[in-house]
Amino acid sequence: MNETVQTYSDALRLAAQKLARADVEGPLRDARRLMELAAGMSTTDLIAEENTQIPLQISAKFSAFIQRRLEGEPISRIAGRREFWGLEFVITSDVLDPRPDTETLVELVLSEWKSDYKNVLDLGTGSGCILLSILSEKLSAQGLGLDQSEKALGVATKNAEKLELKQRARFQNSNWFDALTPEQKFDVIVSNPPYIPSADIEVLDIDVKKYDPLSALDGGEDGYDDYRHIISKAKVHLNKNGLIAFEVGFNQAEKVCELLENEKFIHINVRKDLSGVKRCVYGYASSV
Fold this sequence. Notes:
The chain is α/β, with parallel strands linked by helices. The chain has helices spanning about 10-20, 25-40, 45-50, 55-70, 75-80, 105-110, 130-135, 150-160, 205-210, 225-235, 255-260, and strands at about 80-85, 85-90, 120-125, 140-145, 170-175, 185-190, 240-245, 265-270, 280-285.
């Protein structure tokens, strides 16, 4: 912070004041989290060391973290990891930062999972958080995650290794279904595709538009480009009675339901998140 800072407590107080002046929500909470990262301490350790002199190396690292937070970078991005579905995922600038709302999609797939389902395809897998969370609960299932970004696939592979799911999760470079053969079919297809209309990107919160990859956000002129593409080709790769499930943006559920109806999917429905927002749309392939 500056040369007069002597203790962890001093550094936390001054950092929280800076964050508060910048209208960062929860300034002391964020300051403590960033100090824990900088010092490699647990919350308990930091409380015990609050009146201890802070080493210069840790002080410099903490100051750099605070500056990044002042510029709008989320804590998860600074830390390089995010908790999702009770699991810890590595994240980088190459993948979307998983949001709690997306856990609704995982919950939906698990609740609709039939006893004879054996495999799942995750389109636009990013960090792998959706696929790996499902596999962590369905212990006999296999999964394939597709993404057009090789760097994102590297992150997903690292997460599969970290979570000891590498034996049941594979990752492959592909623009949606392009790398698959018609013979490759799945019981579940899941996706959180880009769904922000192009013109709306600029007005997104800074923690989204500056730190999430544009390719994971931009859904074309009306936000539905990738839904149209996926839904038009999904039946080739979905087994009979198979489940297809999407996360959708605000006020997009009705249109995505319509797209599924047009392709003759059945039992189409919507799932709300904990805030009551229509967060997911799903349907089934017919049995014939």
